[in-house]
């Protein structure tokens, strides 16, 4: 994010006049990790440098806090935000220790990919675990081993986990830039109790651009997975020079 970009260039003053909406932006430059915040009316970003959150992240605003998840390490931090003289500022950052996450629930060898999403006044942790013990070349074989969905309980310290297998007919869309939960009835073709994954997990391979993607549907009630109807590939989507970068799920209600 360029340092000279003003908040008013990001938020339309007319649409958000009088709003308390907060925009969070994440940047990566070499080894420097930065989070920046703005609200309508702010003339500059509130920038936080030197944070212990290096790597791909997922974000969720929940009960007045911003939760930031390190996706491939399953480390969760809570940011407390307050109004300063020039707009929103970060007043406190807390590492949320999750009870038994690594010792019990995630006990098999393999790589993790995690997300967080707000669903019906709950903050959910979505965990995908992969078996990477194969000898694929140039990158190891990557086979989906398990998907789990947990409700996070912040009333205890460490916060607890409750696994769920019923989504009350709702669905969750997961892409490389975040998650959203919706009633399945809002979208033609969407099915309840399903997670729709369209996620990029690697981009570069031996100094060349070679993205790989997770594209599948997961059913919460029975733990089954199936492929998406459309294969996600650069050629299929007509991307320039055969390259397809970050995939997104674009949602329009009926």
From TrEMBL:
<dbReference type="InterPro" id="IPR005174">
    <property type="entry name" value="KIB1-4_b-propeller"/>
</dbReference>
<feature type="domain" description="KIB1-4 beta-propeller">
    <location>
        <begin position="10"/>
        <end position="218"/>
    </location>
</feature>
<protein>
    <recommendedName>
        <fullName>KIB1-4 beta-propeller domain-containing protein</fullName>
    </recommendedName>
</protein>
<dbReference type="Pfam" id="PF03478">
    <property type="entry name" value="Beta-prop_KIB1-4"/>
</dbReference>
């Amino acid at each position: 994010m360029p340092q000279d970009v003003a908040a008013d260039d990001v938020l339309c003053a007319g649409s958000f006049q009088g709003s308390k909406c907060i925009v969070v932006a994440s940047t990566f430059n070499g080894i420097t990790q930065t989070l920046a915040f703005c609200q309508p009316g702010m003339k500059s970003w509130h920038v936080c440098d030197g944070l212990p959150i290096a790597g791909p992240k997922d974000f969720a605003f929940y009960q007045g806090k911003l939760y930031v998840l390190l996706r491939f390490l399953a480390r969760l931090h809570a940011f407390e935000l307050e109004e300063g003289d020039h707009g929103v500022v970060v007043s406190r950052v807390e590492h949320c220790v999750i009870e038994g996450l690594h010792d019990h629930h995630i006990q098999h060898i393999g790589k993790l990919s995690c997300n967080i999403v707000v669903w019906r006044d709950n903050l959910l942790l979505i965990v995908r675990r992969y078996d990477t013990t194969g000898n694929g070349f140039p990158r190891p074989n990557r086979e989906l081993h398990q998907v789990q969905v947990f409700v996070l309980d912040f009333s205890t310290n460490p916060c607890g986990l409750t696994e769920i297998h019923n989504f009350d007919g709702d669905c969750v869309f997961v892409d490389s830039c975040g998650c959203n939960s919706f009633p399945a009835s809002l979208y033609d073709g969407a099915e309840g109790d399903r997670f729709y994954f369209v996620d990029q997990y690697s981009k570069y391979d031996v100094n060349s651009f070679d993205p790989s993607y997770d594209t599948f549907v997961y059913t919460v009630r029975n733990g089954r997975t199936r492929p998406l109807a459309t294969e996600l590939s650069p050629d299929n989507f007509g991307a320039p020079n055969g390259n397809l970068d970050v995939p997104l799920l674009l949602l329009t209600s009926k």
